[in-house]
Structures are given as C-alpha cells and as structure tokens.
Amino acid sequence: MTSVSDADIRAAAERFPDVFHEPTRLVWGRRALAVGMIAYFAFCVWAFDITFERLFGGLHKMGHVLYSMVIWKDFLTWDFSGILIGLAETVGMALLGTTIASLFAIVLGFVAAKNVVPNRFVHHIVRRFLDLLRGVDTLIWALVFVRAVGLGPLAGVLSIIVSDTGTLSKLYSEAVENVDRKPIEGVRSTGASHMQRYRFGFLPQVMPVFLSMSLYWFESNTRSATILGIVGAGGIGMQLSERMKVQYWDQAAFIILLILLTVAIIDTLSKWIRMRLIGKREL
C-alpha cells in the first residue's frame, strides 16, 4: 500500500481547498449562531432577574415546607376516603381519555399516512388538524372544558381525549408510513380487498407499536391528570391543590407519595401487558 506523506496532503489541500477546508461563509454562520445563542441566554438571565440572591435567599422558606412535609400530624384524622376517591378519579380520567383517544387515533393515523391516503390535499388538511389538537397543551384544553361542562372529571377526560388524539394520531401515522411493504404486497397478491390489506398487511406490523405508545401515554396521562385537577378538572389534583392552599404540607406530601406509587404500579403493569401481548418475554 502506497504511503501518503505530509507534503502530499498539503499539496492536495492547496489544490482542492473546498474539500479540506470549510467554506468561509459556513464558518462565520456557525460563529454567528453560537454568539446569538449565548447573547439570548444572557438576555434571558437578565430579563428573568435570575440572581444568586433570589435563588438561595428563599431556601429557608423551602426548608420550612420540607420540614412540614415529613412531620405528619393527626394522621388518623385525615380525609382518606376523599383522597382515595380523588386518586381513583385521576386513574379513571387517564384510562378513559387514553382509550378513547387511541381509538380515534387509529383512524386518523391511517388517514394521515402518506402510503394509505396519497392525496396531498387530504393529507395536508388532516395533518394541520392534528397540529391544532396537539398544539394546544392539555392544561389549556382543561380550562376550556371546565368553562364548557363545569368542574369535575368530565372536563379532564375531554381535555385528554382532544390532546392525545392529536399526538397519538401523528405517532401512529409515522408507524404506518414505516411498515414493510412486502407483507402488504403478499396479501394483495391473494386478491384481498383494501380493508383486508389493512387488516392482515398493516395491522399486524403496527399494532405492537400502537399498543406500546398508548400504554406509555396512559402512564403519562396519570401524571397529567393530577395537574388537570388543580385547575378544577377533578381527581387527586384538586385534593392536592386544596391542601396546598391551606398549607397542609404533610397531607400534600402524603398525596404526592400516593401519586408516585400509583405511577410506579401503572408502569409495571404496562410493561407486563406489553410483554404478554407483543409476545416478548423478559430474560
């Protein structure tokens, strides 16, 4: 093998400068971007008045709150029934909202997939509709539905349905667009109808992905439903908000622990369901 000397490399660099050196415009563009990001970061620090005095000056207040959280007073007199009912409402909101949103997303996900509906106009309309649904945060939808249907879990369920439909539909459509075409062509060669192609060509490939995404969003919505309760959408969040307003930090800490425990249980169950339905087994 012929060796290349440093002189040969220098000669090649002089002959082909564009290959060995980045264009000057690109270099200055990167530098300008870096300077702009640093300047914007510094502006945010200045505009938000982020100082060490403000950051560490309130630690003594936080210490009082943390101390109140670990000292549980009159534990046996707490309203456990209201707390557990609120927790059950939160899980129910997440389950009902995620399930309905997943059903809607299956239909919209196929319609939004280019390899299913190649019409650009229809594809564009559906995609922008999904952008509208997921572009507005679940908390904002909750405020809208609290105004429309009143306080309670119904507003939380509706906000989860609307927000998750947009997000899951986009994720589902991307899964549909990435399917392997060979099984679909094999089903088509048997003379199957369009619906049979979707049933036996698409669904076996995408259903494990759909299931995994829905289970993850169910777990995520359990946490989100807690925040929704704070704005009046029912559930454990309302119980938490009421106790924080009156500074019952010990009961607030108890509720937070229940939420963490519930999320951990749901995560374990979701993993178990995925392993059984998808056909995998843990080592």
Description:
With 283 residues, the protein is mainly alpha-helical. The chain folds into 2 domains: 6-47; 81-278, Orthogonal Bundle (MetI-like fold), CATH 1.10.3720. It is built from 13 helices and no strands. The longest helix is centred in the C-terminal third of the chain and has 40 residues, at 194-233. It is extended. It starts with 5 loop residues before the first helix and ends in a 5-residue tail after the last helix. It is found in: Cell membrane. GO terms for molecular function: ABC-type phosphonate transporter activity.
Tell me the β content.
Answer: under 5%
Question: Radius of gyration from the CA trace?
Answer: 27 Å
Overall, the morphology is extended
Return the domain count. Answer: 2
For the record, what is the CATH homologous superfamily label of the largest domain? MetI-like
Q: What is the terminal-to-terminal distance?
A: 48 Å
Class of the largest domain, according to the CATH hierarchy? Mainly Alpha
Family: Belongs to the binding-protein-dependent transport system permease family.
Domain ABC transmembrane type-1: 87-270
Main location: membrane
Protein name: Phosphonate transport system permease protein
Describe the structure concisely for a colleague.
This protein is mostly helical and 283 residues long.
